Amino acid sequence: MSHAVIAATGLFTPDQSISNAELVEAYNAWAERFNADHAAEIAEGDVAALTPSSVEFIEKASGIKSRFVLDKAGVLDPARMAPNIPERADEDLSIMAEMAVAAARQAIAAWGKPVSEIGAVLCAASNMPRPYPALSIEVQQALGIDGFAFDMNVACSSATFGIKTAADFIASGSVKAVLMVNPEVCSAHLNFKDRDSHFIFGDVATAVIVEASDQAGPGGWDVLGTRLKTVYSNNIRNNFGFLNNAAPEGIGAPDKMFVQQGRKVFKDVVPMVSDMIVDHARDLGIDPATLKRMWLHQANINMNQFIGRKVLGRDPTPEENVIILDEYANTSSAGSIIAFHLRQQDMAPGDTGLICSFGAGYSAGTVFVRKRG
Fold first, then answer.
1. Catalytic: 356?
2. Largest CA distance in the chain
């Protein structure tokens, strides 16, 4: 029976970037304005004064130094504090589809085969622009791909869940190749007025082509095993949806955006993911300490370092535990794929690595891969 191979990847990066210093300047200007407007209530104790942010605070809390965004001006405008992304006509390609298509075309070019060999398109992302028609079908049409397509959302773990789904399609013989895309406009659901999280996210899109080993050319990565896990938790939540987007308090209400209880998330997720990686590796006959590289979800440098130590049994080197969130920030489902896309070329045939994601749900996915000759 043919097994799955990760044959190619692609990456779309917006051309606008925001440094921590720029983001802090905008947030502090807004916070100063808020405190001045509510001075009387603050003096009476009815309203809490907002604390300024700082570059040092952001880097210590997250390891993030900058992020790419679709609209820098809107985010840095103290009177707006949100990206300005105009709606497009129904007949025009949507912004998320446009990002996904750009990443997909790069992956297809690297793959070097016609799109007629792709039998399915999966769009796996933390947010979708609409309930239907599926974004994946829009991408499918834009690329001229036959077959079928559907969307899936498992928050930050969407990409690994997508790879697992693609690998299962390959194993069953349903299709010979799958295109999975991960467009993430995270800036659109981030509350830039919240000091504890205003720095977390960036925008990006990634693409992965998974194909059957019996038709794969040289190179690429054998998928050795995939595993998924979910545990329900409210500690990371976004209440925006078609059932409540007309809430009286308005779409911009804090609970209609990204919210999390970071300390609880760290306490819950880090041991869960570490144990999952170690258990899955051993079930596959892999000594986790021998992993050449880990491409973990890029949420928080402290989480990644802790998981790396637990899995390898020592402090990992920068080559072993890839960090790209300093430049890209948290890009939800796309983070581990960005790391994989950018930091794999130096690995030798036979080297074993791990693509791993974790996030809201809670959800977690592990994909062990081995470099092909």
1. no
2. 72
